[in-house]
Amino acid sequence: MAEPVLPTTARRLLARLARAQRDGRAPSLVAGVVRDGGLAWSAGRGAVPEPHTDVQYRLGSISKTVTAIVVMRLRDEGRLRLDDPLEKHLPGTPLGDRTLGQLLAHLAGASAESPGDWWERTPGGTLADLQLEEDDVVLGAARRFHYSNLGFGLLGELVARVRGASWDDVVDREVLAPLGMARTTPRPVPPAAAGIAVHPWADVVLPEPEHHAGIMAAAGQLWAPLTDLARFAVFLLGDTGDVLSAATLAEMAEPAGVDSSAPGWSAYGLGLQVLRVDDRTLIGHGGSMPGFLAGVFVDRDEQTGGVSLANTTAGLDTVIPGMLADLRASEPRIVEAWVPSPPPVDLDVLGVWFWGPAPHLLRAVPGGLLHLGPLPGRGGRASRFTRRPDGTWLGLDGYYAGETLRIADDHLDLGTFIFTRSPYDPAAPVPGGVDESGWR
């Protein structure tokens, strides 16, 4: 049970929520902040019954993250590889040569929408009903980020075929049920908000239709209340249970494609959006369907998250970054005390090493990791490394992500680069050798 926010924080959050609902003219808006494993504060504004935390809203594209989780589970089981072409698991589409990883990251060049009628407002059918053609491939593979609902519809079909069950059943059995998201369903189960469009020039509303999207369900079908969406935020913060490993979740959150159309720093991992807002990195996903807007984003460094649900088609800015900023300002996180811990290597290995004439510092950092980077105030490449069973070190991030660091007595060997204890040490195996006459 999460500790509730302070009364002053609650008022600040409520003021933000109330203004967003009024200015955005949302028929109803519910939102909350997450920490310590659950909702620390939530409220509803507009025509929302109580308890506001149990009213279902459509999640829209947050469904894509759920789909991606199942794909990553299949990868972890060895049933598929992210480098596999789609054709290997879902034959007969014009995107057969595009990889599963490209589809997950919206880098496959698939068209933004499925062919035919607007899939979000009309009943969906099967893959055959889509009658996909070469025109549904609009960009080359891995050329640029291009958000694709169609791509995730195909991933949903892949999941169904590999598992031998419907997408609805697979995501419930493998993601929703294990996380305790019992009120998350593919169709609305009362109490549920009605999808509504608000006229742009007058304060009048229009009901939006709702259908099962068929093969496109994996792109936006799910409905959930605030409590279930909060549990999903807790999952994104690291409480993954038996659904995914922490390493796989971290892999999903690593930026792959950059959304160059976004006003700020925005990227996409494997089924997860990665946003840079006010010097904070948020991971999660937004969602929209006719009549609904949703969002779930977390700050893993702060171990806080925000969730929001509204029944309006457009015109409402997300409140989540603002709520998280309010929480940081009102109740700053008190970090754990520093305590000594043994380094993962001998102390004499740590310290200054030179890449050519450029000094770098190798130091131990929390979690049994090493960090190699330029001295403070100097530009250069930096990465963290984790020990492998064979004694080598694997790059986790930065320029050397995926590269191998080998530590010898007189040098470091990193991706053909040799780091030495002194600039171009003639006693170390410097590539190309060292001029015999030395420095002069």
UniProtKB/TrEMBL annotation:
InterPro entries this protein is in?
A: AmpC-like, Beta-lactam-related, Beta-lactam/transpept-like, DUF7586
Which segments constitute the DUF7586 domain?
343-421
What Pfam families does the record point to? Answer: Beta-lactamase, DUF7586
- Domain Beta-lactamase-related as annotated: residue spans: 16-315
Annotated protein name in UniProt: CubicO group peptidase (Beta-lactamase class C family)
Q: Which organism is it from?
A: Petropleomorpha daqingensis
